[in-house]
Amino acid sequence: MLPVLYRIQSTSELSKVIIILVAFALVAWVARSGWKGAGGTDEKGQPLEPSKDERRNRAVLYGVIAAALAFWGLTYALPEIPILHIKGKGEGIPIHTYGLLIGAGFITAVTAAGWLATREWPGKLGLERRDQVFDFAFWAFVGGIVGSRVLFIVVNWKDYAARPSKIFDLGGGLVFYGGLIGAVIAAVWFTRRNDIDFWRFADVCIPTVSLGQAFGRLGCFSAGCCWGRVTTHAHAPFAVEFPGVGLVKDLFGNAGTTASLAFQSQADTLNETRWVVESTGEVTAQAQAGAVRISDWALSHGHTLPVHPTQLYESLGQILLFMLLVSMRRFRRFHGQILAIWLMCYAVLRSSVELFRGDLERGTLHGLIASVPFDAWYNISTSQFISLCMFSLGAWVLVKNLRAINAQPKVDVAALTAA
Fold this sequence. Notes:
The chain is mainly α. Helix content is 58%, strand content 6%. It contains 14 helices and nine strands.
Protein backbone atom coordinates (compact mmCIF):
# COMPACT_ATOMS: atom_id res chain seq x y z
CA MET A 1 0.00 0.00 0.00
CA LEU A 2 1.81 3.08 -1.28
CA PRO A 3 -0.42 6.18 -1.09
CA VAL A 4 2.38 8.35 -2.54
CA LEU A 5 5.08 6.83 -4.74
CA TYR A 6 7.28 9.93 -4.70
CA ARG A 7 6.93 13.66 -3.99
CA ILE A 8 8.60 16.23 -6.23
CA GLN A 9 9.39 19.09 -3.88
CA SER A 10 8.99 22.78 -4.80
CA THR A 11 11.63 24.13 -2.43
CA SER A 12 14.35 25.11 -4.93
CA GLU A 13 14.05 27.67 -7.74
CA LEU A 14 14.95 24.99 -10.31
CA SER A 15 12.14 22.70 -9.17
CA LYS A 16 9.67 25.59 -9.38
CA VAL A 17 10.74 26.38 -12.94
CA ILE A 18 10.42 22.71 -13.92
CA ILE A 19 6.91 22.49 -12.46
CA ILE A 20 5.81 25.62 -14.36
CA LEU A 21 7.33 24.37 -17.63
CA VAL A 22 5.57 21.03 -17.24
CA ALA A 23 2.26 22.86 -16.69
CA PHE A 24 2.79 24.96 -19.85
CA ALA A 25 3.74 21.85 -21.84
CA LEU A 26 0.57 20.05 -20.77
CA VAL A 27 -1.61 23.02 -21.73
CA ALA A 28 0.10 23.21 -25.13
CA TRP A 29 -0.35 19.48 -25.69
CA VAL A 30 -4.07 19.62 -24.86
CA ALA A 31 -4.59 22.65 -27.14
CA ARG A 32 -2.76 20.86 -29.96
CA SER A 33 -4.95 17.79 -29.45
CA GLY A 34 -7.99 20.03 -29.79
CA TRP A 35 -6.61 21.48 -33.04
CA LYS A 36 -5.91 18.06 -34.53
CA GLY A 37 -9.20 16.52 -33.41
CA ALA A 38 -11.47 19.17 -34.96
CA GLY A 39 -13.96 18.01 -37.57
CA GLY A 40 -17.28 16.29 -37.95
CA THR A 41 -19.32 14.05 -40.23
CA ASP A 42 -21.81 14.69 -43.00
CA GLU A 43 -25.34 13.29 -43.24
CA LYS A 44 -23.95 9.96 -44.43
CA GLY A 45 -21.50 9.74 -41.55
CA GLN A 46 -18.47 10.54 -43.68
CA PRO A 47 -15.70 12.67 -42.12
CA LEU A 48 -15.53 16.37 -43.03
CA GLU A 49 -12.37 18.43 -43.33
CA PRO A 50 -12.48 21.13 -40.62
CA SER A 51 -11.89 24.78 -41.44
CA LYS A 52 -9.11 26.82 -39.87
CA ASP A 53 -11.67 28.67 -37.75
CA GLU A 54 -13.05 25.39 -36.42
CA ARG A 55 -9.56 24.19 -35.58
CA ARG A 56 -8.67 27.48 -33.89
CA ASN A 57 -11.87 27.67 -31.85
CA ARG A 58 -11.47 24.11 -30.71
CA ALA A 59 -7.83 24.58 -29.78
CA VAL A 60 -8.70 27.73 -27.80
CA LEU A 61 -11.50 25.94 -25.92
CA TYR A 62 -9.29 23.00 -25.02
CA GLY A 63 -6.44 25.31 -24.08
CA VAL A 64 -8.61 27.44 -21.76
CA ILE A 65 -9.94 24.40 -19.91
CA ALA A 66 -6.43 22.91 -19.62
CA ALA A 67 -5.03 26.26 -18.43
CA ALA A 68 -7.68 26.47 -15.71
CA LEU A 69 -6.83 22.97 -14.49
CA ALA A 70 -3.09 23.73 -14.67
CA PHE A 71 -3.52 26.92 -12.65
CA TRP A 72 -5.49 24.99 -10.06
CA GLY A 73 -2.65 22.47 -9.84
CA LEU A 74 0.03 25.17 -9.58
CA THR A 75 -1.72 26.74 -6.60
CA TYR A 76 -1.35 23.38 -4.87
CA ALA A 77 2.23 22.66 -5.95
CA LEU A 78 3.90 26.08 -5.54
CA PRO A 79 4.16 28.32 -2.48
CA GLU A 80 3.41 31.32 -4.73
CA ILE A 81 2.41 31.81 -8.37
CA PRO A 82 5.11 33.96 -10.05
CA ILE A 83 4.13 37.39 -11.44
CA LEU A 84 0.55 37.01 -10.17
CA HIS A 85 1.81 36.81 -6.55
CA ILE A 86 -1.00 34.44 -5.64
CA LYS A 87 -0.23 32.38 -2.57
CA GLY A 88 -0.25 28.61 -2.96
CA LYS A 89 0.09 25.59 -0.70
CA GLY A 90 3.63 24.65 -1.71
CA GLU A 91 2.95 20.93 -1.52
CA GLY A 92 5.05 20.11 -4.57
CA ILE A 93 3.88 17.38 -6.93
CA PRO A 94 3.05 14.18 -5.08
CA ILE A 95 2.96 11.21 -7.44
CA HIS A 96 -0.01 9.35 -6.01
CA THR A 97 -0.44 5.67 -6.78
CA TYR A 98 -4.16 6.36 -6.91
CA GLY A 99 -3.71 8.99 -9.63
CA LEU A 100 -1.41 6.78 -11.70
CA LEU A 101 -3.82 3.86 -11.59
CA ILE A 102 -6.80 6.09 -12.36
CA GLY A 103 -4.85 7.45 -15.33
CA ALA A 104 -3.86 3.96 -16.45
CA GLY A 105 -7.46 2.82 -16.18
CA PHE A 106 -8.71 5.83 -18.16
CA ILE A 107 -6.18 5.32 -20.97
CA THR A 108 -6.87 1.59 -21.10
CA ALA A 109 -10.62 2.14 -21.20
CA VAL A 110 -10.39 4.75 -23.98
CA THR A 111 -8.07 2.53 -26.03
CA ALA A 112 -10.42 -0.44 -25.66
CA ALA A 113 -13.43 1.71 -26.58
CA GLY A 114 -11.64 2.93 -29.70
CA TRP A 115 -10.93 -0.68 -30.70
CA LEU A 116 -14.56 -1.67 -30.12
CA ALA A 117 -15.69 1.29 -32.25
CA THR A 118 -13.76 -0.04 -35.26
CA ARG A 119 -15.56 -3.36 -34.85
CA GLU A 120 -18.96 -1.71 -34.38
CA TRP A 121 -18.83 0.47 -37.50
CA PRO A 122 -17.16 -0.96 -40.63
CA GLY A 123 -14.62 0.71 -42.88
CA LYS A 124 -13.76 4.40 -42.79
CA LEU A 125 -16.73 5.18 -40.56
CA GLY A 126 -15.27 2.89 -37.91
CA LEU A 127 -11.99 4.79 -37.99
CA GLU A 128 -13.89 8.06 -37.71
CA ARG A 129 -15.91 6.76 -34.77
CA ARG A 130 -12.68 5.60 -33.12
CA ASP A 131 -11.28 9.13 -33.40
CA GLN A 132 -14.55 10.49 -32.00
CA VAL A 133 -14.25 8.13 -29.05
CA PHE A 134 -10.80 9.58 -28.36
CA ASP A 135 -12.29 13.05 -28.70
CA PHE A 136 -15.13 12.19 -26.34
CA ALA A 137 -12.61 10.97 -23.76
CA PHE A 138 -11.67 14.58 -22.99
CA TRP A 139 -15.26 15.60 -22.29
CA ALA A 140 -15.91 12.39 -20.35
CA PHE A 141 -12.90 13.23 -18.19
CA VAL A 142 -14.11 16.77 -17.49
CA GLY A 143 -17.70 15.65 -16.85
CA GLY A 144 -16.53 12.76 -14.69
CA ILE A 145 -14.30 14.90 -12.48
CA VAL A 146 -16.94 17.58 -12.02
CA GLY A 147 -19.74 15.08 -11.40
CA SER A 148 -17.75 12.95 -8.95
CA ARG A 149 -16.72 16.02 -6.97
CA VAL A 150 -20.23 17.49 -6.90
CA LEU A 151 -21.77 14.25 -5.63
CA PHE A 152 -19.09 13.94 -2.94
CA ILE A 153 -19.96 17.46 -1.76
CA VAL A 154 -23.68 16.63 -1.79
CA VAL A 155 -23.10 13.45 0.22
CA ASN A 156 -21.00 15.38 2.76
CA TRP A 157 -22.90 18.66 2.51
CA LYS A 158 -22.91 19.23 6.27
CA ASP A 159 -19.10 19.36 6.38
CA TYR A 160 -18.92 21.69 3.40
CA ALA A 161 -21.68 23.93 4.71
CA ALA A 162 -19.61 24.50 7.84
CA ARG A 163 -16.41 25.10 5.81
CA PRO A 164 -17.27 26.22 2.23
CA SER A 165 -13.59 26.73 1.38
CA LYS A 166 -13.14 22.93 1.45
CA ILE A 167 -15.08 22.76 -1.83
CA PHE A 168 -11.94 23.84 -3.69
CA ASP A 169 -9.58 21.61 -1.72
CA LEU A 170 -7.50 19.52 -4.15
CA GLY A 171 -7.35 16.79 -1.56
CA GLY A 172 -11.13 16.42 -1.51
CA GLY A 173 -12.88 13.18 -2.30
CA LEU A 174 -14.55 11.85 -5.43
CA VAL A 175 -17.56 9.58 -5.91
CA PHE A 176 -17.72 7.12 -8.82
CA TYR A 177 -21.45 7.43 -9.33
CA GLY A 178 -21.13 11.21 -9.59
CA GLY A 179 -18.42 10.76 -12.20
CA LEU A 180 -20.64 8.32 -14.10
CA ILE A 181 -23.54 10.79 -14.13
CA GLY A 182 -21.25 13.58 -15.30
CA ALA A 183 -19.80 11.39 -18.07
CA VAL A 184 -23.30 10.35 -19.22
CA ILE A 185 -24.35 14.00 -19.49
CA ALA A 186 -21.22 14.64 -21.54
CA ALA A 187 -22.03 11.62 -23.74
CA VAL A 188 -25.58 12.83 -24.44
CA TRP A 189 -24.27 16.25 -25.45
CA PHE A 190 -21.43 14.80 -27.52
CA THR A 191 -23.54 12.30 -29.48
CA ARG A 192 -26.16 14.91 -30.31
CA ARG A 193 -23.51 17.37 -31.41
CA ASN A 194 -21.87 14.78 -33.68
CA ASP A 195 -25.10 13.10 -34.86
CA ILE A 196 -24.25 9.70 -33.35
CA ASP A 197 -26.80 7.21 -32.05
CA PHE A 198 -26.43 7.57 -28.27
CA TRP A 199 -27.53 4.02 -27.48
CA ARG A 200 -25.13 2.47 -29.97
CA PHE A 201 -22.31 4.70 -28.76
CA ALA A 202 -23.10 3.73 -25.16
CA ASP A 203 -22.95 0.03 -26.02
CA VAL A 204 -19.42 0.57 -27.30
CA CYS A 205 -18.17 2.62 -24.37
CA ILE A 206 -19.92 1.24 -21.30
CA PRO A 207 -18.05 -2.11 -21.03
CA THR A 208 -14.76 -0.19 -20.87
CA VAL A 209 -16.04 1.75 -17.87
CA SER A 210 -15.77 -1.48 -15.89
CA LEU A 211 -12.27 -2.04 -17.28
CA GLY A 212 -11.17 1.41 -16.17
CA GLN A 213 -12.88 1.05 -12.81
CA ALA A 214 -11.00 -2.19 -12.16
CA PHE A 215 -7.79 -0.14 -12.28
CA GLY A 216 -9.42 2.63 -10.28
CA ARG A 217 -10.31 0.36 -7.39
CA LEU A 218 -6.71 -0.82 -7.23
CA GLY A 219 -5.88 2.87 -6.86
CA CYS A 220 -8.39 3.09 -4.01
CA PHE A 221 -6.65 0.17 -2.34
CA SER A 222 -3.25 1.89 -2.62
CA ALA A 223 -4.62 5.12 -1.14
CA GLY A 224 -6.65 3.35 1.53
CA CYS A 225 -10.00 4.88 0.57
CA CYS A 226 -13.34 3.09 0.14
CA TRP A 227 -12.23 0.55 2.73
CA GLY A 228 -14.30 -2.23 4.25
CA ARG A 229 -15.91 -2.70 7.60
CA VAL A 230 -13.93 -3.90 10.60
CA THR A 231 -13.46 -7.64 10.90
CA THR A 232 -10.86 -10.07 12.27
CA HIS A 233 -8.27 -12.23 10.59
CA ALA A 234 -10.06 -15.26 11.99
CA HIS A 235 -13.30 -14.31 10.22
CA ALA A 236 -11.61 -12.99 7.09
CA PRO A 237 -8.05 -14.31 6.57
CA PHE A 238 -7.59 -11.85 3.68
CA ALA A 239 -8.41 -8.81 5.85
CA VAL A 240 -5.95 -5.91 5.54
CA GLU A 241 -4.60 -3.19 7.82
CA PHE A 242 -3.88 0.26 6.34
CA PRO A 243 -0.80 2.10 7.66
CA GLY A 244 -0.47 5.42 9.44
CA VAL A 245 2.32 7.96 8.96
CA GLY A 246 4.79 5.99 11.07
CA LEU A 247 4.50 2.90 8.87
CA VAL A 248 3.76 4.23 5.39
CA LYS A 249 6.62 4.24 2.87
CA ASP A 250 7.21 5.58 -0.62
CA LEU A 251 8.45 3.64 -3.65
CA PHE A 252 12.09 3.90 -2.52
CA GLY A 253 11.42 2.78 1.03
CA ASN A 254 11.63 6.26 2.50
CA ALA A 255 9.26 7.24 5.29
CA GLY A 256 6.13 8.76 3.82
CA THR A 257 4.31 11.83 5.05
CA THR A 258 0.83 10.87 3.88
CA ALA A 259 -1.06 8.27 5.91
CA SER A 260 -3.63 6.05 4.25
CA LEU A 261 -7.11 7.55 4.19
CA ALA A 262 -8.46 4.59 6.13
CA PHE A 263 -6.05 5.30 8.99
CA GLN A 264 -6.82 9.03 8.91
CA SER A 265 -10.50 8.24 9.30
CA GLN A 266 -10.18 5.62 12.03
CA ALA A 267 -7.72 7.79 13.96
CA ASP A 268 -9.96 10.87 13.78
CA THR A 269 -10.80 11.44 17.45
CA LEU A 270 -13.45 14.05 16.62
CA ASN A 271 -15.55 12.11 14.12
CA GLU A 272 -14.74 8.46 14.84
CA THR A 273 -16.67 8.00 18.09
CA ARG A 274 -17.53 4.32 17.71
CA TRP A 275 -16.21 1.44 19.79
CA VAL A 276 -14.94 -1.99 18.78
CA VAL A 277 -14.52 -5.35 20.45
CA GLU A 278 -11.14 -6.34 19.02
CA SER A 279 -11.58 -10.09 19.51
CA THR A 280 -14.78 -10.24 17.46
CA GLY A 281 -14.60 -7.12 15.25
CA GLU A 282 -18.02 -6.01 16.52
CA VAL A 283 -18.49 -2.24 16.21
CA THR A 284 -20.89 -0.44 18.53
CA ALA A 285 -22.03 3.13 18.96
CA GLN A 286 -21.71 2.92 22.76
CA ALA A 287 -19.02 1.71 25.13
CA GLN A 288 -19.40 -1.81 26.46
CA ALA A 289 -17.34 -4.43 28.28
CA GLY A 290 -14.19 -5.35 26.38
CA ALA A 291 -14.62 -2.57 23.83
CA VAL A 292 -12.17 0.21 22.98
CA ARG A 293 -12.64 3.39 20.98
CA ILE A 294 -11.64 2.83 17.37
CA SER A 295 -9.66 6.09 17.23
CA ASP A 296 -7.71 5.19 20.38
CA TRP A 297 -6.89 1.74 19.02
CA ALA A 298 -5.69 3.11 15.65
CA LEU A 299 -3.52 5.80 17.25
CA SER A 300 -1.91 3.37 19.65
CA HIS A 301 -1.12 0.77 16.97
CA GLY A 302 -0.19 3.09 14.08
CA HIS A 303 -2.45 1.28 11.62
CA THR A 304 -6.11 0.47 11.16
CA LEU A 305 -8.02 -2.44 12.56
CA PRO A 306 -8.35 -5.39 10.15
CA VAL A 307 -10.90 -4.46 7.47
CA HIS A 308 -12.38 -6.11 4.39
CA PRO A 309 -10.43 -5.24 1.19
CA THR A 310 -13.60 -4.09 -0.56
CA GLN A 311 -11.55 -2.31 -3.23
CA LEU A 312 -10.19 -5.67 -4.38
CA TYR A 313 -13.65 -7.23 -4.28
CA GLU A 314 -15.00 -4.65 -6.68
CA SER A 315 -11.91 -4.64 -8.90
CA LEU A 316 -12.28 -8.37 -9.50
CA GLY A 317 -16.02 -7.98 -10.08
CA GLN A 318 -15.44 -5.21 -12.62
CA ILE A 319 -12.98 -7.32 -14.62
CA LEU A 320 -15.50 -10.16 -14.79
CA LEU A 321 -18.26 -7.73 -15.78
CA PHE A 322 -16.11 -6.29 -18.58
CA MET A 323 -15.44 -9.77 -19.96
CA LEU A 324 -19.14 -10.65 -19.74
CA LEU A 325 -20.28 -7.53 -21.60
CA VAL A 326 -17.73 -7.85 -24.40
CA SER A 327 -18.72 -11.48 -24.98
CA MET A 328 -22.43 -10.56 -25.01
CA ARG A 329 -22.04 -7.97 -27.78
CA ARG A 330 -22.53 -10.64 -30.44
CA PHE A 331 -25.93 -11.56 -28.96
CA ARG A 332 -27.41 -8.05 -28.93
CA ARG A 333 -30.96 -7.62 -30.16
CA PHE A 334 -31.12 -3.82 -29.96
CA HIS A 335 -28.85 -0.83 -29.44
CA GLY A 336 -28.70 -0.01 -25.75
CA GLN A 337 -28.91 -3.61 -24.58
CA ILE A 338 -25.31 -3.73 -23.37
CA LEU A 339 -25.87 -0.48 -21.48
CA ALA A 340 -29.02 -1.87 -19.85
CA ILE A 341 -27.24 -5.06 -18.78
CA TRP A 342 -24.34 -3.04 -17.38
CA LEU A 343 -26.71 -0.84 -15.36
CA MET A 344 -28.30 -3.90 -13.81
CA CYS A 345 -25.14 -5.93 -13.24
CA TYR A 346 -23.10 -3.08 -11.81
CA ALA A 347 -25.97 -2.10 -9.51
CA VAL A 348 -25.95 -5.64 -8.08
CA LEU A 349 -22.16 -5.70 -7.82
CA ARG A 350 -21.92 -2.32 -6.13
CA SER A 351 -24.78 -2.99 -3.71
CA SER A 352 -23.17 -6.30 -2.74
CA VAL A 353 -19.77 -4.70 -2.12
CA GLU A 354 -21.46 -1.94 -0.10
CA LEU A 355 -22.53 -4.57 2.43
CA PHE A 356 -18.86 -4.92 3.37
CA ARG A 357 -17.94 -1.22 3.26
CA GLY A 358 -16.99 0.50 6.50
CA ASP A 359 -16.12 4.08 5.52
CA LEU A 360 -18.64 6.53 6.89
CA GLU A 361 -17.61 9.17 4.32
CA ARG A 362 -19.49 7.40 1.54
CA GLY A 363 -22.72 8.75 3.04
CA THR A 364 -26.12 7.26 3.86
CA LEU A 365 -29.71 8.37 3.45
CA HIS A 366 -29.59 9.57 7.05
CA GLY A 367 -27.01 12.16 6.05
CA LEU A 368 -29.20 13.42 3.22
CA ILE A 369 -32.64 13.06 4.80
CA ALA A 370 -32.71 13.85 8.51
CA SER A 371 -36.01 11.99 8.98
CA VAL A 372 -34.30 8.68 8.17
CA PRO A 373 -33.05 7.20 11.49
CA PHE A 374 -29.36 6.31 11.54
CA ASP A 375 -30.00 2.78 12.90
CA ALA A 376 -32.97 2.07 10.60
CA TRP A 377 -32.70 -0.97 8.33
CA TYR A 378 -33.59 1.20 5.35
CA ASN A 379 -30.79 3.68 6.06
CA ILE A 380 -28.85 2.39 3.08
CA SER A 381 -25.77 4.05 1.66
CA THR A 382 -26.10 6.71 -1.00
CA SER A 383 -24.49 4.36 -3.51
CA GLN A 384 -26.99 1.60 -2.74
CA PHE A 385 -29.85 4.04 -3.31
CA ILE A 386 -28.37 5.09 -6.67
CA SER A 387 -27.86 1.40 -7.49
CA LEU A 388 -31.56 0.74 -6.98
CA CYS A 389 -32.38 3.56 -9.40
CA MET A 390 -29.79 2.27 -11.89
CA PHE A 391 -31.11 -1.29 -11.76
CA SER A 392 -34.66 -0.05 -12.33
CA LEU A 393 -33.57 2.07 -15.29
CA GLY A 394 -31.63 -0.81 -16.83
CA ALA A 395 -34.55 -3.22 -16.38
CA TRP A 396 -36.94 -0.68 -17.93
CA VAL A 397 -34.73 -0.19 -21.00
CA LEU A 398 -34.29 -3.95 -21.41
CA VAL A 399 -37.97 -4.90 -21.00
CA LYS A 400 -39.26 -1.99 -23.09
CA ASN A 401 -37.08 -2.81 -26.09
CA LEU A 402 -37.52 -6.58 -25.90
CA ARG A 403 -41.30 -6.12 -25.81
CA ALA A 404 -41.11 -3.84 -28.83
CA ILE A 405 -39.08 -6.45 -30.71
CA ASN A 406 -41.43 -9.28 -29.76
CA ALA A 407 -44.45 -7.20 -30.80
CA GLN A 408 -43.18 -6.86 -34.36
CA PRO A 409 -44.98 -9.07 -36.91
CA LYS A 410 -43.20 -12.32 -37.64
CA VAL A 411 -42.21 -13.20 -41.20
CA ASP A 412 -43.18 -16.67 -42.34
CA VAL A 413 -39.98 -17.73 -44.10
CA ALA A 414 -41.53 -21.01 -45.26
CA ALA A 415 -44.39 -19.17 -46.98
CA LEU A 416 -42.01 -16.80 -48.72
CA THR A 417 -39.93 -19.73 -49.94
CA ALA A 418 -42.99 -21.53 -51.26
CA ALA A 419 -44.19 -18.45 -53.11
